[in-house]
């Protein structure tokens, strides 16, 4: 498949001009509608033109497995399936967007990820909350659950 055929329209470019691939949307929809994955980790390609899927976590994979896949000294985007408690006491699952920007990452990748984030977020419909982490200590499951709406 030609690279241009796999892309969404240029309207989904962030201010950096980076575009998300069609695969990002397809895999996200499988996660959202079929609960196929516990997480998706996205990265910007080495040529700095596209956002692609780096890895996915099979349903039931642990939070520790997810955090271990976020690279030290670099940036990533992720969507995480989080179990939350509702006000009525019921348990449900919510998807939350995570922006990982390690404090020790060089400035240029941090700026590129920050300016490209909206291109991906606009495409991933149904995600209302975002959690930002700059060090592994920020990745606290209980805090992420609260941000996703847990009581």
UniProtKB/TrEMBL annotation:
Q: Which UniProt keywords apply?
A: Actin-binding
Under Pfam families, the record lists:
Cofilin_ADF (PF00241)
Q: Matching SUPFAM superfamilies, A to Z?
A: Actin depolymerizing proteins
Question: GO terms for molecular function, please?
Answer: actin binding
Q: Name one GO biological process term.
A: actin filament depolymerization
Residues that span the membrane, as ranges: none
Regarding protein family, the annotation reads: Belongs to the actin-binding proteins ADF family.
- Stated name of the protein: ADF-H domain-containing protein
């Amino acid at each position: 498949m030609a690279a241009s055929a796999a892309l969404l329209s240029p309207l989904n470019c962030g201010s950096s001009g980076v575009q998300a691939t069609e695969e990002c949307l397809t895999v996200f929809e499988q996660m959202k509608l079929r609960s196929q994955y516990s997480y998706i980790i996205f990265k910007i390609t080495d040529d700095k033109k596209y956002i692609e899927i780096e890895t996915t976590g099979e349903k039931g994979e642990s939070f520790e497995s997810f955090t271990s896949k976020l690279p030290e000294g670099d940036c990533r985007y992720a969507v995480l399936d989080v179990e939350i408690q509702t006000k009525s006491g019921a348990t449900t699952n919510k998807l939350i967007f995570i922006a990982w920007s390690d404090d020790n990452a060089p400035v240029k990748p941090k700026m590129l990820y920050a300016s490209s984030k909206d291109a991906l977020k606009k495409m991933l419909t149904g995600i209302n909350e975002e959690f930002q982490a700059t060090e592994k200590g920020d990745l606290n499951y209980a805090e992420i659950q609260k941000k996703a709406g847990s009581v």
